[in-house]
Amino acid sequence: MLLMEMLKTNAPSGCEDEMRDLILNEVKDMEHFVDSMGNVIVHKKGKGKRVMISAHMDEVGFIVSKITDSGAIKFKTVGGIETTVLLGKKVVIGKDNVPGITGFKAVHLQSGGERGNMAQVSDIVIDIGAKDKAAAERKVKVGDYGTFYSEAVEFGDNLLKCKGLDDKVGCAALLELLKIDTDLDLYAAFTTQEEVGCRGSIIAANFIKPEIAIVFEGTTCSDVFPTPDEKTVTRLGGGCALTAMDRAAVADRELLELAKKVAEGNGIPYQIKRTTMGGTDAGSIQRSGKGVKTVVISTPCRYIHSPVCVMNKRDFEAQVSLGKALLHAIG
Predict the structure, then answer these.
(1) Is the pTM of this model over 0.90?
(2) Ramachandran quadrant class, 239 (left: phi over 0; alpha: psi -120 to 50; beta: rest)
(3) Do 229 and 82 lie in a common domain?
(4) Of 85, 62, 61, which is closest to residue 73 (Cα–Cα)?
(5) The domain that contains 180 carries what CATH number?
(6) pLDDT tens-digit profile of 128-181?
């Protein structure tokens, strides 16, 4: 399963090299190029509609901002990461994947006021085992990128846990879609820097100038907590998720209805994402050029943007199946 290979890569926003190299190896026999933003764009020529399928290569992570005299690493987050998931985690830094752990003042040393307040990123350090600043600087530099260290583990009923499912599921889906034959003039864009403002996709879309775009994502799921049904957003095992609206884009109604009709006609399980929060590359693609009809198909992920994202493999299979069926319907 190619997704499992992707999950071994580290690709924080702006440092997507490992994912890009893996993808380039997969598309080496197809027409493709890498643009100025580091996006990988693959073209399967056809006489039909110009369609863009898109997924982002980057994942959340952090960047080293300071090395203290004691050898501790201070950092800033890259992309949206809740502080609570940063505590006590294994991480790797830089091209050499220098191992470290995130640390915070022990509860025994905290004042009463500190115990009642959530830790801030500025309170957390990365410990790489260096005895002082000089020793740390021999392994890590200010400006180095890092990510969570998390091995992919299959467990339970068809579940898979790892960091970076958002959006390695989408990239894996795109590679599957490139295997099908259609009359469409099809472009696949593996984009950069989505987690820090959907930057790569706007460049890719302005080059491709698509009539229609389908964005493949990993999306929020909160189905294990005692919350109202509408706030669970999606459910694992409920099929792939279609987005009607979020803060970045409103799905083209005709295209969304076609996706639902195609899913129902082919027995593909799907669900509607029940929130308008968040945003994806669909927003920047939709607003490119003279405007683009867009729709988003996602795999639900529990604990997203953490080292223990969880997905159901059947939902990923539904994402791929709906993508293929929708392309055939458009063509």
Answers:
(1) yes
(2) left
(3) no
(4) 62
(5) 3.40.630.10
(6) 999 999 999 999 999 999 999 999 999 999 999 999 999 999 999 999 999 999
The token pair that represents 213 in the structure block:
């775009």
Considering the candidates 16, 26, 59, 194, report the single residue annotated as catalytic: 194
Cis, bond preceding 223 (omega within 30 deg of 0): no
- Whether residue 211 sits in one domain with residue 111: no
Q: Is residue 158 part of a domain?
A: no
The bridge status of strand 40-44 relative to strand 293-302 is unpaired
pLDDT band of residue 41 (cuts 50, 70, 90) is very high
Q: Where a domain ends, among 105, 125, 148? A: 148
Q: Does residue 137 have an active-site annotation? A: no
Which residues, including other chains, have CB under 8 Å from residue 47's CB and lie 6 or more apart? 183, 185
- Asked whether residue 283 falls in the same domain as residue 271, the answer is yes
pLDDT confidence of residue 284: 96
DSSP, collapsed to helix, strand or coil, labels residue 158 as coil
Predicted local confidence at residue 275, as pLDDT: 84
Range of the domain at 139: 61-148
Of 27, 14, 15, 328, the C-alpha closest to 172 is: 27
Decide: 197 and 78 in contact? Cβ < 8 Å. no
Banded pLDDT at 114 (limits 50, 70, 90): low
Both 90 and 110 in one domain: the answer is: yes
Q: For residue 102, give the CATH number of its domain.
A: 2.40.30.40
Going by C-alpha positions, the residue among 35, 9, 326 that lies closest to residue 171 is 9
In a domain, 244, yes or no: yes
Query: pLDDT band at residue 110, thresholds of 50, 70 and 90?
Result: low
Residues 263 and 220 in one domain: yes
Residues 33 and 87 placed together within one structural domain of the fold: no
**217, β-bridge pairs:** 298
Q: Fill in the DSSP letter of residue 139.
A: T
Whether 156 is covered by a domain: the verdict is no
Residues with Cβ within 8 Å of 126's Cβ and at least 6 positions away in sequence, in order, are 64, 72, 73, 74, 75, 91, 93, 100, 101, 102, 103, 146
Cα–Cα nearest to 205, from 216, 184, 189, 186: 189
State the pLDDT at residue 119. Answer: 75
